[in-house]
Amino acid sequence: MTDGKRRKGLAAASALLGGVLVLSACSSGDADTSGGGDGKTSQAEVDEAAAKKSSEAQIKITPKDNSDNASINNSAGVTVSKGTLTEVKMTATDGTEVEGQISADKTSWKPSGQLERATKYQITATAQDSEGRAAHENASFTTVSPKNSFIGTFTPDDGKTVGVGMPVSINFDKEITDKAAVQKGITVNTTSGQEVACHWFSTQRMDCRPENYWQEGSTVTLKLALDGVEGAEGIYGVQQKSVTFKIGRNQVSYVDAKTKQMKVTQDGKTVKTIPISAGSPENKTYEGQMVISEKFKETRMNGATVGFTDDDGEGEYDIKDVPHAMRLSTSGTFIHGNYWGKGIFGNANTSHGCVGLADAKGADDPNTPGAWFYDNSIIGDVVVVQNTGDKTIAPDNGLNGWNMDWAQWKAGSAV
Q1: Domain 251-400 is in which class?
Q2: 3.10.350.10, 3.30.1330.30, 2.60.40.3780, 2.60.40.1930: which CATH number matches 58-144?
Q3: For the region Disordered, what residue ranges are annotated (predicted)?
Q4: What sign results for the dihedral spanned by CA atoms 304, 309, 310, 312?
Q5: Active site (catalytic) residues
């Protein structure tokens, strides 16, 4: 080899060696991309091995992390695919732990009860795949606040037995501007098959009833599917529940202010006639169909609370132990026992608008007409007042929607 050829050969060897050095510098210290079988592992093989060690279980927590205005009923939950749940823990920011249960197949978890409004919760979940490899997931969310939610307070309560005149009455704690959306989330059905229609008295009250009184012995079911329903802009429902109540015997009582007698009927037959004293000519009792909405063995009645005051602004009457009182209107109409009126029952109308029955002070004599009527009446019974000379009571003054004809009632529906 000549000297010139020798230099070229050395240069080529140097270039080749340099190339090997460059390749070595770009690879992991533990890897050998030449595949020379020297026991070293490539980066790709390292990544593949790491992936094989990771759990295949995929955990999903709802609602999404950092969500707000979450439902207090249906939002929270954990599911897993390609694995089974081994542990789920849910806590409020104050440290209170929320009870919940993993499903039988160990692929889902739900809280056992309703969450609190305006509360931040954190969920921590662990699952494992078929090879026992663990996966972990965490999320936190805040439930809807009272400011951004509405609830409906309803009557009657779940499990009650009520009279044939008892409507379903729902009062909302916020004004409802999308009445149709809210009404679509509320259903009322009865085992009697009667058609039930709902009527909005205002933006905060909706009552539901059939055309005629409920059928005796039937069962009525109210379902509230309001969770997430937007009742007004930015205001969402939170209730998700079902309640049932039973209709008792058919009792309707008829007060005749002219004859000063009350006939108590069951299934259309008179079971008792009771002398009464209705409102005086100056303070007539409303006429119309009225539903008993509350019962008090004894209660205080102060004229000042319903506008009956003297020149000094004091109540024209203030009786602290009125016996056997049953409310007929929001404005203060009652049918109640009276121990202070002597000789008036069946003879004179002397009250400030209530219907009085003879009774004993202390409400402890079961043999008085007032006690008998109280003991034989239930919430939802109807008292029809006639011949007083006053106007018919407003349908929304108490639970008295029966004073509106069926066509008018249905016209108040939003759907």
Answers
A1: mainly beta
A2: 2.60.40.3780
A3: 28-76, 96-115
A4: positive
A5: 336, 354
